[in-house]
């Protein structure tokens, strides 16, 4: 891309030779990725797009604050910053965590004390008024939701976080904008430039052809994928608008290079405000193709690679996280395969890990878990997983029929069992969850609920049974031990460190009542947070103390660097999951008992890997493996390394 004439031309845009050298060196490094992917998507329109794109990038580079330019250089020197064992994320809604952005600023001591290095504030860019899909119907990407503060407040918060070594993540909704967004308003007013930003059809022939192969995301309250709009037609008459999620969320037409250019500009604007990680929301849906489900199309990965390359040139401190809740065979493409290897998103959600955690907890059987992990192809070593026990969303039982069959199960029957178990319908269940989006055509039932309520703490507190409460605490700590030990960025969901229960008051809020996902989006209990360490014997106190201990151990365990992947070891007991990590410092074996029963694990499975002696980093205990068995109490976890390794 960087020919001599172009380099000379670009140098005239800089007053400082050092800035010119920096920009041009990055352009040399990432220019081929940018141009190749743009040509794959836009063909002969690429050259005209590149001229405009360079203008946007140069403007953003000149506007980038000095402290962020310094961060860019630091990140280039430490490209594995997201892979370090000290990297721990925290996910929260601004208003539910601290009221406003200024309120979050006042809670930085709490986050730092917990060991957080990465703060994901859920959608806070200005949404449409009224129903807005939890903030994912954005009306203005350059403004903050008015009740949360201003864009200047966001910049101030980002700077305060950065001073404490905490990176700020925001959601960037790529697939759609609110019907009230300026682009949609201009399209409805008849502006042909902005009508081309969307997929608008004059009659049902086009939508019907696409609908033949499109699934429904929200069958309960947003059936179909197209919405009639009285003013969307070419001459002011009505038209059918593509709306994958809700009628007020208009899908963007990424086959239009103007849409790509708009999003580069938005990403760089927000990066210059201090955003360090972008959660690329609904990224799987951005490219439409007739005769397919219009998800995971090849152009999605070209577009992501091009967005990343443009961002790397201007703001290499920035990372991308793919919000792609798709099958493992598709998911790996969001981290990069073949020509895109390690060149698209830096992180992706390991949704399967989360699903298998809850599956094994209900069944007390890890064989399906092991089969699911074995089915994952290796990821690029410069990328990492985002791992979580719970998040703001429901749990969809994304269990492969093939994985289930290899584990001796029926996929359909097991999904049905999990829905029954976690909605409280299965005999003897400990869980308290709610069914979300029941689809009678497929039998699919997703589940809402907080981690503590799903793990049995709510039920135990209702009965007052001390043993049940202890089991619930141990389940919660086991789940978090797995995500902290798997190797990636563990994401703690706000309130889970306090074992907050389901918040049924969501039903009293009119705009929340139709969507029971709000049951696991409680307000932060700051009174509990302030007294929790004075209540060490309460269930919440035990969860909090246990989690803080796990975080300290993780921080001091180099074996958990995310460039290394966890591999499944064959387990002689179906209740126990065994994971192996091969680090240059030595082998690590993790042992997880997913049942409340004591398991006598044959010691040979550990001895064959670790030798006769090992150290458990979680307890600090030494283990002699030259005996027949190792005793694992209910829900016990071990992080074993070879004896004599650096602690």
From TrEMBL:
Task: Please report the stretch or stretches of sequence annotated as the Glycosyl hydrolase family 13 catalytic domain.
Answer: 91-531
Q: What is this protein called?
A: Amylosucrase
Q: Which CDD domains match?
A: AmyAc_Amylosucrase
Q: Which Gene3D superfamilies match?
A: 1.10.1740.10, Glycosidases, Golgi alpha-mannosidase II, Oligo-1,6-glucosidase, Domain 2
Pfam families listed in its UniProt record: Alpha-amylase, Amylosucrase_C-like
